[in-house]
Amino acid sequence: MQTASPTFVVIGAGAIGASAAAWAAAAHPSTVLLARGESLSVCRERGVTLYPIDDPAARKTYSVRMAAGLEDVRDAEVVAIAVKNYSLDAVARQVREVLGDRPLVVGLQNGLTNQTILPKYFSKVLYGVVAYNAWVDEPGVVGYQTKGPLILGSPDNRRLAEARALAAVLNRGLPTEATDRFQDAAHGKLVINLANSITTLLGHGVRPVEDLGHFQKILAGALWEGVTILKAAGFRESRLGGIPPWRLIWAAARLPQTLTRGLFRRNLRKMVLSSMANDVYQRRTGLNELEDINGYLVSLAEKHGAPAPINRAILDLCRESFSRPNPEPLDPKRVWERIQAQREGVAADFR
């Protein structure tokens, strides 16, 4: 960054882009949110309204400078791209065509696919682990579980000084940390993101899921198996950003449900319709982040010889279900039976 107060541009007015831009703009007026369509017109006219899940009445509206295109932000020094992985290549190409290789680019995506895409277009790249959940109720209105944080870094730490400088700027409004163990943090968040596919597959937020016993077994089992895969691959636990500790994930998977059901119910109440569920059941374009999250983790397990029967079964079921013209949620018991069959190496009939 060339200045102490850089022009900070956020591309994408989804839940993460809109919330990050709003919080940053509160203390950093040089923040610009680039949006289009109804999101652009609503945010330009009314601002961005945010509210916490535990107190919806505590809404706050932020005034954010809006832009319709990259031509309007040619002075951008920092560009945060907050679009899904399946849109990232096209957006990155547009940024490069209009702004060149001058700005510092920050990728705010789930998973690690962005570490392959962004270096193709830019020489100065940081990545962000978004360590909070947020969702869009309607254009310009976003709910969230916690206010941040955002964790910045890069795989090789060559941009650590810039990560720390940007974190210091953003932290005035948007809680932001820089880390020299970014890959640990990114992989730790990847395991938590496994919940997106599971809740989507079972239809949480689409219809009531009555079978909480199997639901809990599947979710807790998949996350703990994910942790064991990370350990086999040599990654260490990162406690940055409030990511659940591994011992808690172990407890959820291993302790009797009579001891853990209350916590599971409380956490379940905080889970709204995930962005993956929105892609699968509402947008229905065939585009989602399943391969960026679940596919990556199963490949990591194969690479390091780590068992992954739960996540392999879930990946296969999601591929089958999400590819249908009209996907429908699956019964948790049948999903658990498929997992058991995967563990036993038996091909289960799941038509």
Low-confidence stretches: none
Q: On the 0-100 scale, what is the average pLDDT? A: 96
Give me the strand/helix succession: EHEHEEEEHEHEEEEHEHHHHHHHH
Strand content: 5-15%
State the separation between the terminal residues, measured CA to CA.
Answer: 55 Å
Total helices: the number is 13
Instruction: Report helical residue fraction.
Output: 40-55%
Largest sheet: 8 strands, mixed
Which radius of gyration do the C-alpha atoms yield? 20 Å
What is the fold-level CATH name, i.e. the topology of the largest domain?
Answer: Rossmann fold
Can you say what the CATH homologous superfamily of the largest domain is? NAD(P)-binding Rossmann-like Domain
Strand ordering within the main sheet: 5-2-1-6-7-8-11-12
What is the 3D shape? Answer: globular
> Which architecture of the largest domain would the CATH scheme give at its second level?
3-Layer(aba) Sandwich
The overall strand count is 12
Indicate the structural class: alpha/beta
The first-level CATH class name of the largest domain:
Alpha Beta
Total number of distinct structural domains: 2
